[in-house]
């Protein structure tokens, strides 16, 4: 993930945050230290879930389920066209296109079914809880909270040191 330092305007790879923290929700520390000029800045794509809360959409099965059904239907139509229409009546180019589409939508469908299963089984909720706990841990660190506060980040009162409240 590339980003630009607002102080020295150099592009930096987000290595300092370490890839092990990375998650698709964007729930990780928004505080970035530029490896080139060592100044701090906030990355708007990242959020402290303990401070900002969890977006309920991550636990809502409706949208991924709808998408999974649509993709599966498109996949089935493409696949049936290949399978049931006699091959001689479809030009090769169209067959290749149908095969490609069929594979693509099968992949999309599987990814969404995977999300549906993760939400339904409680795996997603468990992961989000873990991310909130990690976030709380970071916010217990007064030095870290002061750095966020100085950059204008809205730290909830309960995490602020007495002199900043
Ligand atoms: Zn910099």
How would you describe this structure to a colleague?
The longest helix has 29 residues, at 92-120. It contains five helices and four strands, in the order ββββααααα. It is elongated, with a radius of gyration of 23 Å. The mean pLDDT is 90. It is mostly helical. The chain has helices at 49-52, 62-84, 92-120, 123-139, 142-150; strands spanning 2-4, 11-13, 31-33, 40-42. Strands 1-2 form a two-stranded antiparallel sheet. The protein has two domains: 2-55 and 141-164, no CATH class; 56-123.
Radius of gyration, in Å, reads 23 Å
Unreliable segments (pLDDT under 50, ≥5 consecutive)? none
Largest pleated sheet: 2 strands, antiparallel
Q: What's the SSE pattern?
A: EEEEHHHHH
Give the cofactors and ligands. zinc ion
Strand content: 5-15%
Structural class: mainly alpha
Instruction: State the helix count.
Output: 5
How many strands?
4
- The best one-word shape is elongated
Portion of residues within helices: 40-55%
């Amino acid at each position: 993930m590339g980003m630009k330092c607002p102080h020295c305007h150099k592009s930096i790879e987000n290595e300092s945050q370490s890839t092990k923290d990375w998650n698709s929700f964007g729930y990780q520390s928004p505080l970035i230290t530029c490896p080139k000029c060592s100044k701090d800045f906030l990355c708007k794509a990242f959020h402290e879930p303990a401070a900002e809360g969890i977006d309920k959409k991550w636990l809502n099965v409706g949208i991924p389920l709808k998408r999974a059904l649509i993709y599966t239907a498109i996949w089935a139509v493409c696949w049936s066209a290949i399978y049931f229409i006699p091959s001689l009546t479809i030009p090769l180019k169209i067959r290749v296109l149908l095969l490609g589409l069929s594979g693509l939508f099968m992949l999309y469908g599987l990814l969404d079914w995977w999300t549906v299963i993760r939400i339904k089984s409680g795996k997603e909720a468990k992961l989000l809880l873990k991310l909130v706990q990690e976030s709380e841990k970071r916010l217990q660190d007064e030095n870290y909270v002061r750095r966020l506060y100085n950059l204008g980040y809205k730290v909830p009162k309960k995490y602020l040191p007495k002199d900043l409240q």
